[in-house]
């Protein structure tokens, strides 16, 4: 029997905006885009990790009440959620490519701890750390 984590969820303010960012700028691909009434299950995958999905979910009912939805949207927009980590072969080259696509970086590539890393945000405010593979 195979076990493990298959999907990690991320709150986004707009799922269509999130698809554009994650597919067009980070080169992920849509894995699942299914709707059930107002609820939308949307996941993307990095091409190099077919067994792992990143869920791009809107904070909404029925999982959250209205007050919590508003709080979560505010926290995400402030960048208060823990960052995700993207491993790349060449951090500086990925930074240059993503800058031309309009990705908002909060830290340019820096060499430290035996690697090179940079930080950026998605359109919802979620933080990402991009680290060059050793």
Give a description of the structure.
With about 130 residues, this protein is of the alpha/beta class. It has one domain: 2,3-Dihydroxybiphenyl 1,2-Dioxygenase, domain 1 (Roll). The chain has three helices and eight strands; from the N terminus they run E-H-E-E-E-H-E-H-E-E-E. The chain has helices spanning about 15-25, 65-75, 90-100, and strands at about 5-10, 30-35, 40-45, 55, 85-90, 105-110, 115-120, 125-130. The radius of gyration is 16 Å and the shape is globular. The mean pLDDT is about 95.
Q: Unreliable segments (pLDDT under 50, ≥5 consecutive)?
A: none
**Gross morphology:** globular
Give the number of helices. 3
- The strand count comes to 8
Structural class: alpha/beta
Looking at the structure, the CATH topology is: 2,3-Dihydroxybiphenyl 1,2-Dioxygenase, domain 1
Fraction in beta strands: 35-45%
Query: Any idea what the CATH superfamily is called?
Result: 2,3-Dihydroxybiphenyl 1,2-Dioxygenase, domain 1
Level-2 CATH architecture: Roll
Q: Could you describe the largest sheet, including whether it forms a barrel?
A: 4 strands, mixed
- What is the helical fraction, as a range of percent? 10-25%
* Terminal CA distance: 32 Å
GO molecular function, one term: lyase activity
Keywords: Dioxygenase, Lyase, Oxidoreductase
Protein name: Catechol 2,3-dioxygenase-like lactoylglutathione lyase family enzyme
Domain VOC: 4-133
């Amino acid at each position: 029997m195979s076990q493990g984590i298959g999907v990690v969820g991320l709150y986004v303010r707009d799922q269509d905006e999130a698809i554009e960012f994650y597919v067009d700028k980070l080169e992920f691909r849509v894995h699942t885009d299914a709707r059930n009434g107002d609820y939308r299950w949307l996941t993307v995958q990095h091409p190099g990790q077919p067994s792992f999905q990143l869920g791009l979910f809107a904070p909404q009912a029925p999982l959250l009440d209205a007050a919590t939805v508003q709080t979560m949207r505010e926290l995400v927009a402030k960048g208060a959620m823990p960052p995700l980590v993207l491993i790349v072969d060449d951090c500086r080259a990925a930074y240059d490519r993503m800058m031309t696509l309009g990705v908002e970086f909060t830290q340019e590539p820096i060499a430290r701890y035996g690697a090179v890393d940079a930080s950026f945000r998605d359109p919802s405010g979620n933080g990402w750390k991009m680290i060059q593979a050793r």
